[in-house]
Specification:
alpha+beta; Nuclear Transport Factor 2, Chain: A; two-stranded antiparallel ribbon; 4 helices; globular
Length: 125
């Protein structure tokens, strides 16, 4: 993770965002999972729907494997187009559109190794 006294640099945030989108668009589950720490906190309204978790939270990389793997299998045309990303202190916010044209904002907090340790996903309906 490249940071300065003001937090993550815009260049580092852009690299993180582009690498993450590249791995999703390649449908490379192992590469996607490599972006995440273990344990972690991943929160999304889709976790409620797809995993039956009332709090919308996944806590391990193996839970992410099941969740992300299911999404890749169920949606063979899944694709993300990065619109923008914003750098924070130890976080990056990705703004992208999915293959259905839906707007998504994903806030990712990074650990000292630069892996996502906490993420919150927001969808525009």
């Amino acid at each position: 993770m490249s940071a300065n006294t003001a937090g993550l640099t815009p260049e580092a945030a852009r690299r993180i965002a582009e690498d993450w989108v590249r791995d999703w668009n390649a449908h490379d589950l192992e590469a996607i999972l490599a972006h995440y720490a273990d344990p972690l906190e991943f929160r999304s309204p889709r976790v409620v729907e797809r995993m039956g978790r009332p709090d919308g939270t996944l806590r391990t990389r193996e839970e992410l494997r099941a969740y992300f793997g299911g999404a890749l299998k169920a949606q063979p045309h899944l694709r993300f187009d990065l619109v923008d990303c914003l750098a924070g202190m130890d976080s990056v916010a990705l703004y992208y559109r999915n293959h259905r044209g839906q707007r998504v904002m994903e806030a990712m907090h990074l650990d000292a190794a630069g892996r996502v340790c906490r993420a919150a996903v927001h969808y525009a309906e």
